[in-house]
């Protein structure tokens, strides 16, 4: 089966969507599928110093990466979508899988079978102009896409997002597949690096971005109140890291380790006792886009935590409860109540069996449902329109 994947992702970069795209391409490439990823050449935003895109993400070189057009401004992504679709047409694929709307739209016009994946409402905008004017055009073209006979289905990451789309676009009923995000199993050969300060203390980790809604303030407040634990923060832009460091100079038990390539993250997470996902009620995405994703999100971090087999302490939000269940595979806390988080950490400190049980169950649930391979199988075989490709052998 020949699959062409069209995306707007910046590769290589620190963004979660770029990790998602690379991991999905690797999963698609299994079972002897021929996969080509087409992304714009966004050199001004790429992670500097990366010599091997595949190694940076920790994926195998089993699929091709094409970057046909230099892109510096967002409006150029429309041109990229047309050129990417035309390049896909030349490859005569069995399926065009898209996280680029413009690419998906043009590919459908070129009589190619398309699947579109969405991680938030397509009509969301980050300015008043987008909300009241541009969205009118976006809705028009989206309706054109989903009514095209070459449109096979929409893939979303949560049931709440599925409900939103079905309400806004009834024609999508029976054409939506819910596929939460995923992660890779942690190799048994992975060993955590020796940077922990005091093994007599509870080692608490957070891996991810440091911008609005990720709960960094909550972690800092916990560190100020809990001296019997070390708090480790992995990730973030240099400017964000320096900002938070300046606010925590008096705290000896909080440690900023900076950004690490995705290929190294699993070893880090496996070395913690507890992993934190303190998402707030308003969660922003990368790139300064002011869209609240808390209602729809299915964070990569949660699945990477589950793969690590460690106790997870997470915000009690509806979208996260689609995967995590309190006292089953995680402990869930009110994102606005610092005392809840402190009490949960006390419980995890004092009850080693609780930590072990939560970690074992999280890993079991992960291996059964949330690997990249199982996600690839789901999105390619989850509807009659795609089953004809006989992806699952």
Walk me through what this model shows.
- This protein is α/β, with parallel strands linked by helices and 393 residues long.
- The chain is built from 14 helices and 13 strands.
- The protein has a seven-stranded parallel beta sheet, sandwiched between helices.
- α1 packs across α13, α4 packs parallel to α5 (128-147) and α10 packs across α12 (352-369).
- The radius of gyration is 21 Å and the shape is globular.
- Residues 388-393 have low confidence and may be disordered.
Condensed summary:
The protein is of the alpha/beta class and 393 residues long. It has helices at residues 16-28, 53-57, 76-91, 101-109, 128-147, 159-168, 216-225, 238-247, 262-269, 300-308, 338-350, 352-369, 372-381, 384-387, and strands at 2-7, 34-38, 64-66, 95-99, 114-118, 151-156, 176-178, 202-207, 229-234, 254-258, 274-277, 311-315, 331-333. α4 (101-109) links the parallel β4 and β5.
**What shape does the CA trace take?**
globular
User: Could you report the average pLDDT, rounded to the nearest whole number?
Assistant: 90
Number of helices: 14
> What does the largest sheet look like?
7 strands, parallel
List keywords for this structure.
alpha/beta; seven-stranded parallel sheet; 14 helices; 39% helix; disordered C terminus
SSE blueprint:
Layout: E1 2-7, H1 16-28, E2 34-38, H2 53-57, E3 64-66, H3 76-91, E4 95-99, H4 101-109, E5 114-118, H5 128-147, E6 151-156, H6 159-168, E7 176-178, E8 202-207, H7 216-225, E9 229-234, H8 238-247, E10 254-258, H9 262-269, E11 274-277, H10 300-308, E12 311-315, E13 331-333, H11 338-350, H12 352-369, H13 372-381, H14 384-387
Parallel strand pairs: 1-2, 1-4, 2-3, 4-5, 5-6, 6-7, 8-9, 8-11, 9-10, 11-12, 12-13
